[in-house]
Specification:
Blueprint lengths: L5 H10 L1 H9 L12 E5 L2 E4 L4 E2 L1 H10 L7 E7 L4 E6 H17 L7 E5 L4 H13 L2 E4 L6 H11 L3 E5 L2 E3 L2 E3 L1 H11 L6 E5 L13 E3 H8 L9 E2 L5 E5 L7 E5 L2 H13 L9 E3 L6 H14 L3 E4 L10 H9 L3 E4 L1 H7 L17 E4 L6 H11 L3 E3 L11 E2 L16 E2 L5 E4 L11 E6 L10 E2 L3 H8 L1 H4 L6 E9 L5 E6 L3 E4 L2 E4 H9 L4 E11 L3 E10 L7 H14 L8 E4 L13 H8 L14 H13 L5
Parallel strand pairs: 4-17, 6-7, 6-8, 8-11, 11-12, 16-17, 16-18, 18-19, 19-20, 31-32
Antiparallel strand pairs: 1-2, 3-13, 4-5, 9-10, 14-15, 15-25, 21-22, 23-24, 24-26, 26-27, 28-29, 30-31
Helix pairs in contact: 1-2, 3-4, 3-5, 3-10, 4-5, 4-8, 6-7, 9-10, 18-19
Bound molecules: adenosine monophosphate.
Length: 635
């Protein structure tokens, strides 16, 4: 068969979105067919498949469990943390999901209610999520590494009827007391959560709160072999809320629909990831992130292939563990992050050599810029095509990528290639006008946004408009603001140049500088703070925080430690700053704005640029001195 052409497919997807996506939707199960493929009458609120009724869980589980693939594996669990491994077939998964759906119903959770899932990388996490989808409850998975404060914020924002957690988990053997974090979060939150279901792994002792806390095992035993009919969901009904960082301190709850998301993910499995029905898919992310939602849970299962769920780190018990897992489970497609590759690159090649990686066809990477040396290292070490692709929590699936289901376009290391199906992107200036090829500008998307992209921000349509559309709307343009700087070259390839807003990307995890600043300024001895992202060899970016103390407060190591502890406690260990400097003042413009670019240039020992608007030039010298004393410049 002649290889299919990307250009032809992409042209059709943007010129005839209804024809293109309608055809993709036919491949899935609908209780009721859509009246129309796209309703953009309320742009930029797009509704895909209005009038259609479906169920995500039915499509991801029942459809396969009840057919000839029922006894094939759905979940392959590998847990170096516990030394355990297990396999769940589609039929077994269906039974578990049915039972947990019954548990949720029995506890009063129904269609449209929210459920927070705060679980480590265990099969039960997928069961809980799919059970929500089955009964039409809206899940909100919170990364089980986030602190009690972050969890409390999310509880207050989405007011869940139930919360599912584990007693604890481990990271390289170190216990994380999840249930204790939940207890603190529930004490701190204004919103009351009536039911907490605890998966007791016997990792960390915990005390149940009578009436509120129940164990997973007892709940499952109480419902027996229950069968719960999947709820008929409108295509535009929300399936989940996933919080992500933006320019304000308060995380945004990205709302995903049901039908559009399902169709887009299913189509991405063969069009983008080049999967066949005999493949095994492994996304090394965590279910707490968007990649985990789309490619640990929904994508592979909608497509009917096994998803590998890995509880562990890339270097434990040894840095060969990932290659060992690929060999053992005959993984066909791996999806990981540049950070992980940069970390593995530090170890001797002996850990890779000798492993049978013949099952592996492609390595996909996303989450942060993929630097050229890492690209070449992965390609040469694994001897497989390396596909860098770009997307965001908001998009739900790739926006810029090479499509491995089509004749691949030539790879250009450092660029994630061209637009994904359905996406029409441009690089524009501040006024929303396209800039010439090779010129830096804002990455922006033309409406309609394809299926599966965010519907709104939970509880605030205004915030959705303000965060993504009003920037160019003020210039009279209808364009989606992606938040990144980019260059489009002569061949139409995109080159990502980092965030254009105050968002930091640490090892692929997004954080708002405002979030970090707000936490630090809550310290009683802090007068002012500015946090920025600085380049880091392994993690891509790290946080650097500059703190001005209140008058009369003495600088001390103990105080610095307190501030670091505060950040770890309020946001989580991923937000631990690489640089924390106490300075007499921050560099500011005469209008009082902190000159972040000056802080960044100082940390990275780059040219300071135009300083004509600075209020007090001595601030620069003071910061320079502080960085030198700490040996903390970015080099
Ligand atoms: P998140 O919403 O946490 O997935 O973060 C999305 C952000 O990560 C994007 O806006 C980019 O800044 C960055 N990002 C994701 N993938 C890539 C990539 N392949 N190349 C460069 N930056 C990326």
């Amino acid at each position: 068969m002649a290889e299919r052409s990307y250009d032809e497919m992409h042209r059709r997807s943007v010129e005839d979105p209804e024809g293109f996506w309608g055809q993709e939707a036919e491949k899935l199960h609908w209780y009721k067919r859509w009246d129309k493929v796209l309703d953009d009458s309320r742009s930029p609120f797009f509704r895909w498949f209005p009038g259609g009724e479906t169920n995500l869980c039915y499509n991801a589980v029942d459809r396969h469990a009840l057919g000839p693939r029922g006894d094939r594996p759905a979940i392959l669990w590998e847990s170096p943390e516990t030394g355990r491994r297990s396999v769940l077939t589609f039929r077994e998964l269906l039974s578990q999901v049915n039972r947990f759906a019954a548990v949720l119903k029995r506890r009063g959770v129904g269609k449209g209610d929210r459920v927070i899932v705060y679980l480590p990388m265990v099969p039960e996490a997928l069961v809980a999520v799919l059970a929500c989808a089955r009964i039409g409850a809206i899940h909100s998975v919170v990364f089980a590494g986030f602190s009690f404060e972050s969890l409390a914020d999310r509880i207050n924002d989405c007011t869940p009827k139930a919360l599912v957690c584990a007693d604890g988990s481990t990271r390289k053997g170190k216990v994380i007391s999840l249930k204790k974090i939940v207890d603190r979060a529930l004490d701190a939150a204004q919103a009351k959560v009536p039911h907490v279901i605890v998966l007791d792994r016997k990792v960390d002792p915990w005390t149940p709160v009578p009436g509120r806390d129940h164990t997973w095992d007892e709940e499952m035993a109480a419902v027996g072999e229950a069968v719960v009919e999947p709820e008929r969901m409108k295509s535009s009904d929300p399936s989940y809320i996933l919080y992500t960082s933006g320019t304000t301190a308060k995380p945004k709850g990205v709302v995903r629909d049901t039908g559009g998301y399902m169709v887009a993910l299913h189509a991405s499995m063969d069009h983008i990831y080049g999967c066949t029905k005999d493949d095994v898919y492994w996304s090394t992310s965590d279910i707490g992130w968007v990649v985990g939602h789309s490619y640990i849970i929904y994508g592979p299962l909608l497509y009917g292939i096994p998803t590998l769920v890995f509880e562990g780190t890339p270097d434990s018990p040894n840095p060969g563990i990932w290659w060992e897992v690929i060999e053992r489970s005959r993984v066909s497609v791996v999806f990981s992050a540049p950070t992980a590759m940069r970390m593995l690159r530090k170890f001797p090649l002996d850990f890779v050599h000798g492993k049978d990686l013949s099952s592996l066809r492609h390595v996909f990477l996303a989450g942060e810029p993929l630097d050229e040396p890492t690209y070449h290292w992965v390609k040469e070490t694994l001897k497989k095509p390396v596909v860098d692709h770009y997307w965001q929590t908001e998009s739900g699936w790739p926006m810029i990528t090479n499509h491995m289901g089509f004749a691949p376009l030539p790879f250009k290391p450092g660029s994630p290639t061209r637009e994904a199906m359905g996406w029409s992107l441009d690089v524009v200036d501040e006024k929303g006008n396209p800039v010439p090829a090779g010129t830096r500008g804002f990455l922006a998307g033309h409406p309609p946004l394809p299926p599966g992209t965010l519907q709104t921000i939970w509880g605030s349509d205004e915030r959705y408009l303000e965060s993504y559309w009003s920037f160019f709307k003020r210039q009279g343009k209808d364009l989606y603001l992606c938040g990144d700087y980019a260059i489009k070259d002569e061949d139409g390839y995109f080159w990502l140049l980092g965030r254009a807003d105050e968002v930091i990307n640490v090892a692929g995890h997004r954080m708002g500088t405002r979030e970090v600043e707000e936490v630090i300024s809550a310290h009683p001895q802090v007068a002012e703070v500015s946090a920025i992202g600085v380049d880091d060899e392994v993690k891509g970016q790290e946080i650097a925080a500059f703190v001005v103390l209140k008058k009369g407060v003495e600088e001390s190591e103990a105080l610095k430690k307190e501030i670091v502890a505060l950040i770890r406690d309020r946001i989580g260990p991923i937000a631990t700053p690489k640089i924390l400097n106490i300075v007499p003042q921050l560099p500011k413009t005469r209008s009082g704005k902190v000159m972040r670019r000056v802080l960044r240039a100082l940390c990275e020992e780059k040219a300071l640029g135009d300083l004509s608007t600075i209020e007090d030039g001595s601030s620069v010298e003071e910061i320079k001195k502080a960085l030198e004393e700490m040996g903390q410049t970015g080099k």
